[in-house]
Structure formats: C-alpha cells, structure tokens
Amino acid sequence: MNITSIIIAIVTLLAGIVLGKIIFAKNTKQKIQDAENEAHNIISTAELKAETTKKEKILEAKEKFVQLKAEFDREVLERNKKLGENENRYKQKEISINQKDTSLERQIKENDIIKENLSKQLDVVAQKRNQLEKHQEEHIKRLEKIAGLTADEAKSQLVESLKQEVQSQALQLQQEVIEEARQKANKEARKIIIQSIQRTAAEQTIENTVTIFNLESDEIKGQIIGREGRNIRAIEAATGVDLIVDDTPEAIVLSSFDPLRREIARLSLQRLVADGRIHPARIEEVVEKTRKQLEEQVMEIGERTVIELGIHGLHKELIRIVGKMRFRSSYGQNLLMHSREVANLCATMSAELGLSPKLAKRAGLLHDIGKVPDEETELSHALLGAKLAEKYGENPAVINAIGAHHDEMEMQYIISPIVQSCDAISGARPGARREIMQQYLKRIKDLETLALNYNGVEKAYAIQAGRELRVIVEAEKVSDGDSDKLSFEIAQKIQNEMTYPGQIKVTVIREKRAVNLAR
Q1: Quick check: 200 pLDDT over 50?
Q2: What are the distances in angstroms from CA 60 to CA 9, 11, 14, 49, 270?
Q3: Is pLDDT larger for residue 196 or for residue 48?
Q4: Which among 460, 474, 488, 473 has a CA at the least distance from the CA of 257?
Q5: Contact 294, 263 (CB under 8 A)
Q6: Is the distance from CB of 340 to CB of 365 less than 8 angstroms?
Q7: Parallel, antiparallel, or unpaired for β 457-463 and 251-255?
Q8: SS3 state at 254
Q9: How far from the centroid of its chain's Cα atoms is residue 154's Cα?
C-alpha cells in the first residue's frame, strides 16, 4: 500500500465524516458553513500530500456537497411551505372562533333584552288579571244586588229547578214503561202459565230453616232453659243454633240457616233429654260427641249414595263431601238430592248419545262439591270443585265437567255440556229452587264471616233469623273493655257494608274459666 492509497483512503474517510456532519447539521446554515470550511482545509492538506489525487477527490466531494445542499434546501423549503400552510390554517380558525364569540355575545345580549321584555309583559298580565278579578267581583256583587240572591243561592235554585225537571221527565218515562208493560201483560201471563203447566212438579218441598224438637211434656222446657237461662245459652253457644221456647205445647223450635248445625242441636237435645242431666258442662260434652257422631253419619250417607248410584273408586274425602251435601241446600233445593238427580240425568243422556254413562254419572254427582268446602275461599264453587277433584285424582273429563258447568272453564270433553244441561234441567223445575232463600242464607253466612275476621273472636253465630249476632271471644285475648269496643266496631261495620231489613243486635260474650283437678 503506497502513500497515495493511504491519502485517498484518508481523504475518503474525511469526506465521509464531513458528509455525515453535513447531514447531521442540515437544520442550520452555520453548521453547513463550518463543514464547508473544514472540507476546504482537509482538501488543502490532501492537495499538499497527494497532488495527483487531490483534484479528483475535491471534485467528488464538491459534487456530493452540492447534491446534499440541494436536497437540504429542498427539504427546508418544503417544511417552510408546510409551516406557512399550518399558520394560515390556524389564522383562519382563530378568525372563525372570534366571529363565533362575537355572535354568541350578540345572542346573549338579545336574550337578555327578550327576558326583560317578557318580565315586563308578565307584570302587565298580572296587573290586568288583578283588574279583571276586581271587575268580576264587582260584577257579581252588582248581579247579586240586582237579583237579590247570593251566588250559592242562585246555584241551589238552578240545581233544584233541574232536579224537578228531571223528576218530571222520569215520571213521564215511568208512565210510558208501565203502559207498555200493561199492554204486554196478558200475553206474557198466558205464556208463563202454559210453560208452568207443561213442566213437572218438584219431587221434594223446599227445606226450611227451622227444626221442630218435640217434647214429652212442657216440664222439660224448664230444664232446657236452666237457672237464669244458663242451659239454653250454653246450648246456643256450643251449637250456634237459636232455641225458641214459646207457648207451643211440647215443642221447641231450633232456628239456624245451617242444616248441619240444626241436626247437631237436635241430636244433642235428644240425648240430653233422654239422659236427664242438663247443665253447661254436660251440654258441651254431649254436643262434642254428637258432632263426632254426625261426622260418621256424613260418611255413611256418602258411602250409601255412591253405592246406590253404582260409582266405584271414589276417594274417601270426596265421599265425605258427598255426605255433607245432605245438610246443604242450593237456592232452597237440597244439594244431595239435586246432585243425585243430575247424576241420573247425565247417565240417561250419555246412554242415548252412545257415551259412557258411568263417567257422566260420576261427573254429575260431583259437579257441586265446591259448595261444601271445609274452609272459606275466594274461588267460585265450580273452580273449587274442579280443584278438589284434581287433588283427589279424578278423571280429567270429570274435572273439566265440574269446572265448566258454569262456563268458568273451557269445555274440553263431550260430557261437560251434558253436565251443564242436566244441572240446568234439575234446577229449572218449578218449586225446585227459590232465589230469596239463597240470598237470605248468603246474608247470614256473610254476617258470621264478618265477625270472625276480627282478632280474638272464637265463634260467631247469627240467630233470630239474622236479627242478632252472638260473638264468642277468647278471654285471654279480649278484655271486658275490648268487648264493648268490639261490639261497637262490628255493629258499625255491619251498618256500613251490609244491606238488611230492620236492625241487628250484636252481642259479644266473654267467659273466663278456671279449671283445676283435685286428686
């Protein structure tokens, strides 16, 4: 390697360094000038050492320098151009913002002016309103002075005149309706008479709400009444039945809307009279035994009914409910007799239609089991009966027939309309039902239910055909002072919520017993 190559290498290296510095310092013109001066010094030194190669390398270095400088100038121009464009853009945005601020200030000033105008207008409206009210009051006073009446008196006279006009129109309309009814009376009367003659008579009479208990002699009445009436009060409290002891020879009337209670009272009196020992403790014991005996009798009645109708596989609880029907009535018609009749009609009709008589008879017997529930419920008797039948595993067709016989469920089986038709046939017979009786029984039941809803009430019995309500309370929960308050509250609630003839006496009975055993 000769010195020329070394010098060329050094020059090349130095030129590269200079170029690197030029590229690194391309952002400022001063650095470019320093780099140019340094390049000239290096070239001068190189020319002294290598005159042969100096001119070539200097030329190359100058060419590269000129090229880099041109590129640097171009980049600087482009950046300056971009900076100018950004500056113009920012100036335009600033101008638009200033314009918007000016418009907002102008709008704020305009809004303030509008608010001031509105407040002035509101003040003017308020003043005018006050003036109008004053003028109206003055006008009313002038009218009252001219008419000689106050505003209230004028209103009352106007209402009275309208009332008289309406009453006259109502009377006229009533006369027209009565006249039209008279014109149709003969025609409708003939039609009703013909329909009544065509129908068959009832097989049994409507059951009463009283039972006559016959005595061997009138002397037994004194024993039943007891000293100061304590025995008869004990019987009435234990059974919920009103005992009527009057001048009827050798007879006592048992009055209650519930046939089951009357039967318990009758059997209990029969046992007490036969035994001869009649006192409050014995009365309670006999009534309790009679109640249990009657439960057994209810089961016997139910079993005998299903055997006579040829119905098999009925749940024991349903048999008991069927037996209880014997002591219930529907619109004055005995419920068990009605259900038996419906069952037989369903069997006959189903046989004529080629259906199963046994299934139809079963549905007919059970269609009203919801009328003898053990507990009070808000469901109708049809839906409650369907619920009970489903609970005790009855056929779905029977369940549907029970729930749908008053159109409260959708009929899904062919026996459902059959049960509904037979129920209507049984209840439509002349003398079979009486609406007044059912309304009376419902009112008596509602009267007892109303009292039982109060806290501390143990029993409630409606006696004297619903003219008296006897409420037996628990001595531990209700004090003597509370008894007076309870009697007043029940009387007020009956007066406000129920419709009844005459008046109802509310008697609250509180009895404290202390029992111990001597051994």
Answers
A1: no
A2: 14, 11, 13, 18, 149
A3: 48
A4: 460
A5: yes
A6: yes
A7: unpaired
A8: strand
A9: 46
Tokens at 224, concatenated:
């039943």
CB atoms within 10 A of CB 252: 23
Angle among Cα 41, 44, 46 to the nearest 5 degrees reads 110
Radius of gyration of the chain (CA): 55
Tokens 């299934």 correspond to what residue? Answer: 359
* Cross-strand pairs, 463: 468
Token pair in block for residue 71: 């590129």
How many CB atoms within 10 Å of residue 178? 10
Task: Kindly state the DSSP code that residue 72 receives in the 8-state scheme.
Answer: H
Structure tokens at 67: 């090229």
Helix axes 357-366, 280-309, angle to 10 degrees: 160
Q: Is 20 helix (H, G, I), strand (E, B) or coil?
A: helix
**What are the structure tokens assigned to 476, written together?**
């531990």
The token pair at 411 is: 């009929």
State both tokens at 380: 């109708």
Measured N-to-C along each axis, helices 335-352 and 415-427 cross at an angle, to the nearest 10 degrees, of 130
Sign of torsion over alpha carbons 341, 343, 344, 348? positive
Contact 350, 357 (CB under 8 A): yes
Specify the pTM.
Answer: 0.44
What's the rounded Cα separation, in Å, for the pair 339 and 337? 6
User: Rounded CA gap, 275 and 283, in Å?
Assistant: 11
Q: Which pLDDT tens digit goes with each residue over 169-187?
A: 776 777 677 777 767 765 6
